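Re: the 295-residue chain
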Amino acid sequence: MTTLLPAVLPVGLIIAIGFIVGRTLPLERSTLSQLALYILSPALVVDSLYRTKLSWASSSKLLLGFALTSAIIYGTVWLTSKIFKLATPLSRGITAIVMFPNNGNMGLPVATFALGAAGLDRAIIYMLGSSFLMFCFGPAIIRGKGIFQGLSLTFKLPLIWAILLGIGLRLFRLELPWELDKGIQQLGAAAIPIALIVLGIQLSQTRFQPKLNEFFVAIARLAIAPTIAYFIGRLLQLEILDLQVLVLQSAMPTAVNSFIIVSEFGGDKDLVARAIVTSTLMSFVTLPIVLWLII
C-alpha cells in the first residue's frame, strides 16, 4: 500500500481541486480539454521521446506485446458490444475505459517504486506506445465511420506529428537550441494536471452513483487486461523485467485522457468519468495483488 500512495494520492488531490473549481468557477471544460489534447499532450510525448535513454531495439518486443494485448482487448470489447447489442455511446465509452490504461501519471511512479530505474525506462516506452494508440488511433476507434475517415482524422491531430518529431530528434540525436527543450518539458509537465482538473470539473457536473456497469468495466480494466498481457508476454518469451512491466502497466486503472478522447470524439462521458474514479479506487486492492504475483 505504501508503494501506491505516492502515485495515487496526488492524482486524487488534483481531481478534488478540479471538482472544487467546477463548483465555484465558470470555467469552460471544453476549452481545457482541447488545450490538453492539442497542445500539452503532444509536448509530453515529444519530451518523453527526446529524453528516454532506452534503445528502441531492446523495446521492440515490449511494444509488440502491448500492441497484441490492445488488439485482443479491442476485439473482445467489439464482440461483446455486438453480442449484447450495446448502444453506440455506451460501446464507445467501454472501449475507451478498457483499452486505455493510466500508465503515465500513475503507471510510471508505480513502476519506479516497484521495479526501479530499469523498470521505469521500459514503462516510458510502454507509455509512448499507449500514447500513440490513444491519441493517434484512439479518435478513429472511438468515432468509427470507417478506417479511411478515421485515419484522416488521425492525421489532423498533432499527436502523430509530435511522435514523428520526437522519433526524429531521437534517431538523429539532434539537440534543440536555446534550451527550447525546457519549454517543451514544461508544457508536457502540465498535460497530466490539466487532464485531471478536467476530470474533476466533469465529476462536479455528474451525479456519481456507482452502478454495476462501472464495476464490470473496472474489473475488465484491472484484472482481465493484465491477464491477457501475461499470456501474450509468455507467448513472446519476454525477459522477466519486460514481462513484469507489460503486465503491471496493463493493470493500471483507466487513463484520465480517455475522458478527453471521449469528450472530443463521442461516447458516454459520464460512464467514463465514473469508471476512472471507480477503477482508480479499486486499484488500491488489485495492484498490490498484481505486484505480489509478478515480483
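The domain at 5-294 is CATH 1.20.1530.20 (Na+/H+ antiporter like fold).
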